[in-house]
Specification:
Largest sheet: none
Order of helices and strands: HHHHHH
Helix content: over 70%
Number of helices: 6
Structural class: mainly alpha
């Protein structure tokens, strides 16, 4: 047994010298700049969601204070009493949809990057797919803020799902192979 095999056997479980891909420890995988850049992309999407959420919460409190109902929670999505929707209510509704969309996109990306990182899957293809996902997410969130268009949702929803599916597939295809089974 060589020194390299003994070193990786302690850290990564069962490693055979003839394996196609050499094993990689967690610290060397996370030290890659591509892996770091994917998590920076996640952080960018997190900041967008946080900004939208804070804006939504501040608008809810401003609406409560202006109506004189500082203690009662109100939701402008229920509509006006006379059947007409004001510009403020439509803006609030689109902001709420954009915030919920950003949250859903963020959780999807979190799941894909977590599986990829802990399985020590892909780095550069994951980076490229992550940033394509983020650019598409920003585009989709912007269209929701502008009022939401059904055709844009119809196009971007399957594209985002396929990008996440590709990250998952690459994570399982290129990673998760150096863990010892429990039996």
């Amino acid at each position: 047994m060589s020194i390299t095999t003994a070193k990786y056997e302690n850290v990564l479980g069962h490693y055979q010298p003839g394996d196609r891909y050499p094993p990689e420890a967690f610290d060397t995988f996370f030290a890659r700049s591509a892996v770091r850049a994917t998590w920076i992309g996640f952080f960018v999407l997190f900041l967008i969601w946080g900004f939208l959420w804070l804006t939504l919460m501040s608008r809810l409190h401003l609406h409560d204070d202006r109506a004189g109902n500082a203690g009662a929670p109100t939701d402008p999505d229920l509509g006006a009493t006379n059947g007409n929707r004001s510009r403020r209510e439509l803006t609030h509704r689109s902001l709420k949809r954009a915030t919920n969309l950003a949250r859903d996109l963020l959780f999807g990306l979190l799941a894909a990057l977590t599986i990829n990182s802990f399985g020590r899957g892909t780095s550069v293809p994951g980076l490229i797919l992550t940033w394509i996902y983020i650019v598409g997410s920003i585009t989709w969130i912007a269209t929701e803020l502008l009022g939401g268009f059904f055709l844009i949702r119809l196009i971007l929803a399957p594209i985002h799902f396929l990008i996440l599916l590709a990250i998952f597939i690459l994570a399982y295809a290129l990673g998760w192979r150096y863990f010892s089974p429990l039996w």
